[in-house]
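Regression test attached.
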Amino acid sequence: MVALVDVRRLTPRTDAVLADSRLAAAEQRLGRPIVLSAVRRAQEQARSGQIEPASVADAAVADLPPLAATLTPVINATGVLLHTNLGRAPLSAAAREAVLAAAGNTDVEFDLISGQRGRRGRGMLTALAARVPAAEAVHVVNNNAAALVLAATALAAGGREIVMSRGELIEIGDGFRLPELLESTGARIREVGTTNRTTAGDYAGAIGPQTAFVLKVHPSNYRIEGFTAGASVAELAGLSVPVIGDIGSGLLAPHPLLPDEPDAGSWLAAGAALVTASGDKLLGGPQAGLVLGQADLVARLARHPLARALRVDKMTVAALEATLAGPRAPVALQLEASQDELISRARRIAGSLETLDIDVRVEQSEAAVGGGGAPGVGLPSAAVSLPAELAAELRSGAAVRAGSLPAVVGRIENGRLLLDLHAVPAADDELLTAAVAAAAS
Ligand SMILES: *Cc1c(COP(=O)(O)O)cnc(C)c1O
C-alpha cells in the first residue's frame, strides 16, 4: 500500500514530462494530442508500478507513433496482386513524386498563362485520352462505382430502365451490390436472360421507350463456366440504345497474358457508347473511376450537378496523370514477372535467413490478379515458406508498431506461412528479409 502511494506521488507531472526535449520535438512533428496520450499512457504505467517513475519520458518516447496518421505501410506477400484491403495497386515512383508535389497549392484548376480559372486536371484528361484513341472524350471521378452512379443518375434517373443480364448482377465486395447501387439513383434495373445464358435477343426484347441504356458488366471476381452464352458488345451495339460497358479492371488496351480480360479500347471500338473502369486495378494508378466514350454522353455526365460531388482531388489528378504518362506501373511489371525470377529471389531471401533458428523453405506457388480482374487466372509464382506462428509477429510485431519496419502480410497454406513474391517489388526483398529476421528473433 505504502509503495503504491509512493509511486503515485513520484510519477512526474504532465508538464514536466512534456518539457523533455525529445517530446517537445515530437510535438512539432506529431501535434500535441498524440504526444499527450503517449505521456498519459506512460504515467499510467508508472502509477501501476509497471515502470519506474523516472522512466516516464523514456516510455512515452518509445510509445510515440512514427506518423500522425495511423496507416501502416505493408509488404503485400499475399500473392494477390490487387488486394483491396491492402490498398490495391501500389503507385509507381513517378506517381508518388507527383502526389508529393501536388500536396501543396498547385494549378489543378488554374491557367498560369492567363491567370484565369482553368479546366480541372487537364493534364490528366489529356494523358488518358492519348492512351485510348477510340475515346472521343474522357472524364474522371472518385472510383468506378461513382462512374456507374453518375451514368445512371445522368441518363436513367426518374425510373428509366437499365437493361442488364442476370449473369452480370455482381456484388463488388463488402456487401456492395451493383444493381442496388444503380437503383439507389432512382433508375430501374430491367433484368434479362438467366444466370448462365443471355443472348442478344434477350436484350433486344427488353428495349422499349423507358430504356435508358444497356449495361454490360465484366464479371471481374467470378466466372461462370459450362453451358453458357453471353452477348458481345459488338452484338449489343446494333441495338437502338447506348451500350455502357463496365470493364472493371482498367486495362486500356488488350494484354497478352490476360486474353479474357476486356479493355477500354476494344470495347469502344466494338461500339460501346461509354466504358467505365477503376484506376487502381490493372491500370496500376490511384483510386479513380474512368469514363471514356462518346463526346455528348461524357459531357452529360461531366456537366451533371452530381459530378461535383464525385470529382477527384488534386493528389489523385497528379497520380493518375503520372501513371498514364510516366513509366509502367508496378502492377503491370509484377504481372509479367517470370516464375524463374521469383524462385531465385525466394532462394536469395531464404539463403540470408539460414542462420536463424527457424524452418525456412522455398516453394512454388500460384498467385492471382485478385478481385480487380482476371478471375480464375493463376500466375505461376514462388514463396518463402515459414512456420505459421510467425504470421502475427510479421503483421503487428514491435518493429511494425514502432514504424521501423513495414508490416508483412502473407497467406497461410497447409499450415505454413507463405510469403508470395509476385506482388512484392524486388526492391523490397531486403526489407522483407529484415522483417522476417526481426519477427523470428
Ligand atoms: C471493382 C469493380 C467495380 C468497383 O470499382 P471501384 O473502383 O472499386 O469503385 C465495379 N465494377 C466492376 C466490374 C469491378 O470489377
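Expected vs. actual: identical. Residues 143-145, 172, 217-218, 220, 246, 248, 278, 289, 372 surround pyridoxal-5'-phosphate (CB under 6 Å).
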